[in-house]
Amino acid sequence: MKRVLYFFPENPLENNAGNKTRALQLLRYFEERNFKVDFVSLQQGMSKWNEEDIEAFKRSGLAENIQFIQKKPSKDNRIKYLLDYKIPNQRYKKQFGDKSSLNTDISINKKRQFESILQAKKYDYIIISYLYWADLINTPLVAGAKTIVDTHDFLTLHHKGKKGFQLGPTFEDEIEKLNLFCEAWSISSDEQFVFGQFSRTKLRLIPPYFDPPQESIVPEKVFDLIYVASDNPHNIRSARWFFGEVYPLLSKKLNICVIGRICAYIGEYSNVRKLSFVEHLDDFYRQSKISICPMLSGTGVKIKVVEALSYGLPIVCTVRGIDGLPNKINNGCLVDDDPTGFAHHISRLLQHADLYRQQSEWGKALFNSFFTKQAVFIQLDRAFEINDHS
In the chain, what is the straight-line distance between the N-terminal and C-terminal CA atoms, in Å? Predict the structure, then answer.
């Protein structure tokens, strides 16, 4: 039985963003393949784990054990804190800290805690989410394990807007971190191509997966447009562009449904229904005609695009909306970065049944070829050498 150590810095059970959906999908794969999994996360990260969260994760059965890395040791003994942590951490940062804008949040304390986990047990596979945390496996204690980084994103691109950004050093640092691992997973075919041109590490495309929706009686289409998004900076900028530039060009007779934490950044409109949280998106996708993805920036395949394709919804999006899709045309997406063109695509889909039907069929075909659970599990099985599906 394979033993896996899986590090993900947030609480995947929140499932309110694409990266957490990704983590849950991997955990469910491990569960189906009967892997023994130790899950490691940050106690003081972006997701604050409370006792209720921890108990919910334990009850989920997604891992045998859950362990946490603390940010800093206690300051109760100031001298001990200074000698055991503060001074050694300054040396650690000086020796291993990034020389580019691709900064990490690893401290000597976090590294020691992770190493203590490695000392306690032997693992067949060690999986790290995000290259920010690559230095966790830069230790002899990983010997004998296959180390894998789940990249999630092209980090250099995320940093390009930061003050003092330098493309060369930042990208070089990202590639050096990739080279620490035996294997790197990409969620996007575009990022797999970029990394593969420069990294020595084996690259594998592991896209997101979804179960195809259950066949059911098609409900009445209540909404003309559905827009699902979290509240990260890319989505906030994109939502403001859509409602500022595209929405004024659309008929106010259209019914629009917006779901997710992005609602906090959208004004009040008579024909827009805002739902910050819904238990199940299924009903809303089934009741909608078109999905929109007005992304202006960001990296990786867009989880909500794939999700909408699974329901056969044609998608109107910007160029960033088709990032990571293996097909850039005839894929169920109508693409335009110009507000007028974006609005025109929406009108055409609503007015022309043949166009709508063709886009829906293309989207379903793309989903069935690349993004089903069966298709992605084949790739994961190969990564874990379960059997040969070729």
Answer: 23
